[in-house]
Write a structure and sequence with these properties.
The complex is a heterodimer of chains A (about 170) and B (about 160).
Chain A (H helix, E strand, L loop, with lengths): L1 H13 L7 E2 L2 E4 L3 E8 L4 H12 L4 E10 L2 E9 L3 H10 L8 E14 L5 H13 L6 E4 L4 E6 L3 H11 E2 L2
Parallel strand pairs in A: 1-9
Antiparallel strand pairs in A: 2-6, 3-5, 3-6, 4-5, 6-8, 7-8
Helix pairs in contact in A: 4-5
Chain B lengths: L12 E15 L6 H9 L6 E5 L5 E9 H18 L3 E14 L9 H11 L6 E5 L2 E7 L3 H11 L9
The chains are: A alpha+beta (about 170), B alpha+beta (about 160).
Amino acid sequence: MEERSKTVEIIRRIGAPEPEKISITGILKSHDLSFLLLTLPPADDPPAAVLRLLGSHGVNIRFITLYDDSPETRLLTLCVETESLTASLELLRSHQASLDIRSISHHPRVRILSVYPYKERAQVAERLLSSLRLNGVEPLAVNNASSVLSCVLRSEKFEEALSCLDHVFELP
Amino acid sequence: MEHVESLQVFPLKIARGLVQLSFLGIPNRPGMTRPLFDLLNRQGVAVRHLVEACREQATSDLLICITREAFARLQGELHEIRARLQPREFVLREPVAVVRTLGPHFDLRPGTSGLLLTALVQAGVRIYSNATTITSSSCVIPEDQVEAAERAIGKTFLLPGAKRT
């Protein structure tokens, strides 16, 4: 791991050859949100029930990723308004057994950074993710639902993430 | 089934004939997924669906959908890349379809995502993965369940051309 970090540091100092910037139309920046990560059994009912429960209590969900992260587990990540975090956690914990929620973790302050248009371009995903990781910004979750590619980032890393993007994307 | 305030959606966008590749538990390191995206970019392969997250800090999970044709063409290279990524587990699903629901402002109306997923679950549709942001939600499902998914979404949301009730 240390060897890898040294290599990354050397590349950073001497400067890797800079590839041409990719033209995009814009970057969307969310306000502060809260991030929830739930592990569930590998079935479709529990995630739907979690979303119904939160929705029925007026919790607005701005970002979702859902998939099987092993044969035994589904991972559900959500972004909710920060003012809904406490209520959401209380709700989920009070229904943890009945909804078969195996674990709940959270980050209180995150922001979503979205670039568009994504247009299903592998190059856009590669530049976005590599530039963030090369600069020590690890996304908590990434998805593309339409023409935007979105990353959930810890709020304290958000400005750093934006400056990373300056080097790889060209805005009009 | 609930048909709440007839939330209108734009035409569903459905992409069929896809393969979902799930690289689960990739050890985190800078540029780890670069070889994969570089290959797809060089070969002009569109990434129809992308989800990445991680349960623990040391690893990440990456799920992508590409066409079956592209997968067949690049199978050898993808096999090599899989070895380089060193995932804890690799899952291949085919044929799958991506059903994209646009319009009902998932980000502003509490409960919209719940409505969508519940409609699909009640119709017996298996959701392999879901990505939702802003006005759009994208589900990867088995290709042979597309019609069931369309019917379920049509009963829950107001599709273009349908009469408002």
